[in-house]
Amino acid sequence: MEKFYVLYNDCYGGFGINKEAIKEYNRRAIEDGQTTIYEIDSNRFEPDRDDPILIAMYLDKEWNTDGNRLNTKHSRINIAEFNMNVHGCIDIHEYDGQEIPYVNKEKLLKKECIKILYDDSINDSTKISKLKTLIN
Question: Quick one: how far is CA 124 from the chain centroid?
């Protein structure tokens, strides 16, 4: 099954990446043709946690040789892997800056219900049956 990744902060302090990592992010974003560039000295670095550039930086063993190159003194960036079927259903629980990504079951249920309801290849009675099975 296809997978996707989400970055999160694994220590108390909150999600953030250091100035060198923001510079590298901007360099890769420009190379990729993106227009969203972040200020180096800003505390407003807030990309999606599944941002493909940020994920690539974390996974790039040549750039991120020891797995710590994104970290700040108040963050320890880690990565979680999920099956693609839950994409769009991931939330991050945060306590004092330490984060835990998890599948939001309500979002997943809604996503599955919508998929069934808009499936034109099945009739209404099959849709009802599938929805009943899903919610029980």
Answer: 34
Residue 121 is which amino acid?
S
Is this structure's pTM higher than 0.90? no
Q: How far apart are CA 46 and CA 59, in angstroms?
A: 19
Q: Is-contact 9 75, C-beta < 8 A? A: yes
Q: Report the candidate in 25, 32, 94, 92 with the shortest Cα–Cα distance to residue 60.
A: 25
Domain ranges across the chain: 3-103, 104-136
Please determine, for residue 42, whether its predicted confidence score (pLDDT) is greater than 80. Answer: no
Alpha carbon 7 to its chain's center? 6
What is the Cα–Cα distance from 79 to 130, expressed in whole angstroms?
34
**Is the distance from CB of 103 to CB of 86 less than 8 angstroms?**
yes
104 contacts: CB under 8 Å, gap ≥ 6: 89, 90, 91
